[in-house]
Amino acid sequence: MLKIGIAEDDHKIAGLLKSALEENGYQVWNAYNGTDALENFIKNDFNLLIIDIMMPGLNGIQLCKHLRESQINIPILLLTAMGTVDDKVMGLDAGADDYLVKPFHLKELLARVTALLRRQLTTEVPESHHLCFQDLCLNTSSKEVSRADKKIELSAKEFDLLELFLRHPNRLLSRQYIAEQVWNINFDTGTNVIDVYINFLRKKIEKGFERKLIHTKINMGYILK
């Protein structure tokens, strides 16, 4: 699961950001001042940082500079109410990768987060072997599957089916599409093989967990969300 650090002294905004990001499958850690943020951002591994400029302790510009000086090279998205060109240049010069002016829509923030992470992952790992959604992870190289760090044993077809869902999270997949991608056949309305394997997969990845991940859309297909 990708981990995002947030440095934002406004508890209400920090809470909204945390909720929105967690709903989209990220693990989130919050800091409410620049000093605590610096310590934890250096000590722990994060995939992306979201930093507000106006904070007690260290402000966002100072925090960015200290992080870059400490060889923290992950993407940084700055948040600020100051939207002049000079303000943006100052933030980018301090080491930020992107800049978002308050007030902003959560959809825009999520889009920028996705773009920054995609750019980072493409740079670091041209072809990632890890596919994750929330606490469910699959390794295409070792063929290992786990949920909340608990290993799950899947058959070859169950593995292929899960990989298909993980490559298309939050997207409705029709039975015909699943049949073509996993079985390499045209869908036959007279067989329930897809439904059977969906049930096999559900039992293995959802048993013992409160949150269900694969959902049925009647007469339409299945969706991982």
Topology:
Blueprint: E1 3-7, H1 11-23, E2 27-31, H2 34-43, E3 48-52, H3 60-69, E4 76-80, H4 85-93, E5 98-101, H5 106-124, E6 130-133, E7 136-139, E8 144-147, E9 150-152, H6 156-167, H7 175-183, H8 193-206, E10 214-217, E11 221-224
Parallel strand pairs: 1-2, 1-3, 3-4, 4-5
Antiparallel strand pairs: 6-7, 7-8, 8-9, 10-11
Helix pairs in contact: 2-3, 6-7, 6-8
Per DSSP, the total helix count is 8
Q: Tell me the helix content.
A: 40-55%
Residue-averaged pLDDT: 88
Tell me, what's the shape? elongated
| Arrangement of strands in the largest sheet | 2-1-3-4-5
Strand percentage lies at 15-25%
Structural class: alpha/beta
Please mark out the parts with pLDDT under 50 across 5 or more consecutive residues, or reply none: none
What oligomerization state is this entry in?
Answer: single chain
Q: Distance between termini?
A: 15 Å
Order of helical and strand elements:
EHEHEHEHEHEEEEHHHEE
Q: Report the major sheet.
A: 5 strands, parallel
**DSSP, total strands:** 11
Radius of gyration: 21 Å
Key phrases:
single chain, 8 helices, 5-stranded parallel beta sheet, alpha/beta
Précis, in short:
By secondary structure, the chain is an alpha/beta fold. It is 43% helix and 21% strand.
Can you put this structure into words, describing what you see?
The model has no long low-confidence stretch (mean pLDDT 88). The protein has 8 helices and 11 strands. The chain is elongated, with a radius of gyration of 21 Å. The chain is of the alpha/beta class.
